[in-house]
Design brief:
The structure is a single chain. About 40% of the residues lie in helices and about 15% in strands. The strands form four sheets. The protein has a seven-stranded mixed β-sheet, sandwiched between helices. Strands 11-14-13 form a three-stranded antiparallel β-sheet, with helices on one face. A two-stranded parallel ribbon has the order 1-12. Bound molecules: pyridoxal-5'-phosphate (PLP). Pyridoxal-5'-phosphate (PLP) binds next to α3. The site of pyridoxal-5'-phosphate (PLP) has 14 residues, from α3.
Length: about 350
């Protein structure tokens, strides 16, 4: 597996290149999900998830769901707003738009605060929206992976608190590497195993404030957050979980803690992202969003004139690197590079060298 040819470097925003330890955990012995060994594993993961942001398990419930990150976000959106809820969904990218669609599909009364993709969320504009109409919840994406935009939870949460509004957070691509504000107004934070935590695809979770869970409403069977929470608190599980992905998540969380937790991971990502940005700048390739507005996880870059995404992608793929296209209207103008996963500085050196060869040939 150490042979370069066998190791594809994933620079897409999840799933990530796994460490050998996490990959080995995928091959752990078979477990029946109705036996004590599985519940020990589940308890271990739930404790470790709380520990990532030093949360109190009496106030916050970590709820595991087998599925991708979208399953966690949808279970939060479908379960936490009560019967009389009205949700303001902030849309400044693909994932904000997706949360608005979830609200529509589950018949939740909602409005959308639509911004340009990548735009900053102005707290004053949010305050004006909350004053103009009564809302029970605001739904926001922490790191909008569409553009790399990091939305500032520490500015948004106080505005929600002022108005007695609860916050629903899609932190799928930030949990484990960015600062997450678990303020009193936060009702839930949804995330996944296979982004900043470096686990495998198939396990996702919501960290929900216990008092918010009690005020929610069931709108789905498989994605009923309160149902999962009640079973998991009692060392149970409603359905068959993705056991190998759970084993991998436990190993990934252990590694995350041993490596110094979310702050160390943020430093690491920043270092690698800076190395990518500097290397690309030297080749004349510009960032699409300023570094201080981007997450540590992913940055978007403008495609150089005369180079299509397809050519850049395919040539890099041959060299063992997988980059990521822009979404929607950005598909023709940008490409994205994420530095999550088991990536080394030497990988970035090779990547930049290869991009230099492609752009100057
Ligand atoms: C990756 C991602 C998701 C979920 O994607 P899945 O493919 O369902 O895992 C949701 N929100 C954000 C911000 C993401 O980056």
């Amino acid at each position: 597996m150490n042979d370069i040819k066998d190791r594809e470097i994933l620079l897409n925003p999840g799933p990530v290149t796994l460490t050998e330890r996490v990959r080995a955990a995928l091959g752990a012995p078979d477990l029946c999900h109705r036996e004590a060994e599985f519940f020990d594993l589940q308890d271990d993961i739930r404790q470790r998830l709380l520990a990532v942001y030093a949360l109190d398990g009496n106030r916050w419930a970590p709820v595991l769901i087998s599925g991708s990150g979208t399953a966690a976000v949808e279970s939060m959106m479908a379960s936490l707003p009560g019967a009389d809820a009205r949700v303001l969904v902030i849309d400044n990218g693909v994932y904000g738009e997706r949360m608005a669609r979830m609200a529509a599909i589950h018949g939740i009364d909602h409005d959308t605060m639509t911004l340009e993709w990548g735009a900053w969320i102005d707290p004053a504009a949010l305050r004006a929206r909350l004053q103009s109409r009564a809302f029970s919840h605001v739904a926001v994406v922490h790191h909008e992976t569409t553009t790399g935009r990091l939305n500032d939870l520490s500015a948004i949460a106080p505005v929600c608190a002022e108005h007695g509004v609860q916050l629903l957070v899609d932190a799928v691509s930030s949990f484990g590497a960015e600062d997450i504000v678990f303020a009193d107004c936060v009702a839930g934070v949804a995330a996944t195993a296979n982004k900043c935590l470096h686990g495998a695809p198939g396990a996702a979770f919501v960290i929900t404030r216990r008092s918010a869970l009690a005020q929610g409403q069931t709108r789905a069977l498989y994605l009923d957050l309160a149902g999962y929470a009640a079973k998991q608190d009692a060392r149970g599980t409603p359905f068959t979980p993705g056991v190998p992905a759970f084993h991998a998540l436990a190993a990934a969380l252990a590694e995350h803690a041993e490596n110094g937790g979310w702050r160390a991971r943020r430093d690491r990502y920043r270092e690698l992202a800076g190395q990518v940005a500097d290397g690309l700048a030297a080749l004349g390739i510009e960032a699409a969003l300023a570094a201080d507005q981007s997450s540590c996880v992913l940055r978007s870059y403008r495609l150089p004139d005369g180079l299509s995404y397809e050519v850049l992608h395919d040539q890099l793929k041959t060299a063992g690197f997988v980059i990521y296209a822009g979404q929607g209207s950005l598909a023709r103008s940008i490409f994205r590079i994420s530095t999550m996963g088991a990536i080394e500085q030497s990988d970035v050196v090779r990547l930049i060298k290869r991009i230099g060869e492609i752009t100057h040939s």
